[in-house]
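Person: Please work through this fold.
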Amino acid sequence: MGYLDTLGRVMKGDFGSASAEEKAAAAHEVIQVCAVAAAAVTIQPFPVADVLLLSPIQIGMVQAIGRIHGRTLDKKTVLEIMSTVGASIVAQNVIMAAAKLIPVLGSVVAMSMGYALTYAIGEVSDLYFKHGSTLSSSELKSRFRSIYETKKKEGEQAAKDPKLKEKLAALTKAFEAGVLSKEEYEAKKEEVLKAF
């Protein structure tokens, strides 16, 4: 099941009577599938395309997490929340674009950054909605940086795995040869990344 299916299911769900554990499980699922989707979309060679591909994933994720906690959010509010926690879309995409300029390792760095940024945004958004205004902006930013650094290191280790590189290269060749449609290619990339 892709991230769009998960987001759609959560956005249509009723969490009013859900327990804290059920809400936590739903938020974790949303964060995980969106982080994997973010890593998958960074595997493309065009640096400026990242902002166009990552932003909708991250915005949808924060909206879904808000929904789990009984909040309905428009895109403007989501962008304000992301800026509050230290996840400015412009800043993150400038950094990822610069990373892609590094030969060979650039795509590995961008993939781990896309995963880590999205995961950290999700975790801190969940924290924000759980605790509301009791957490300061500096506490949220500190938590964001900590989660981001941890997940980035984990992502870099996974991305260095030769099996992952081989599988992604094979998928790309199949897509370029016309064996896989764009939708099939994106779904398969997500599956491969979830396994690592």
Q: What stands out?
A: Residues 105-131 form the longest helix (27 residues). The chain has a mean pLDDT of 79. The chain has nine helices and no strands. The radius of gyration is 17 Å.
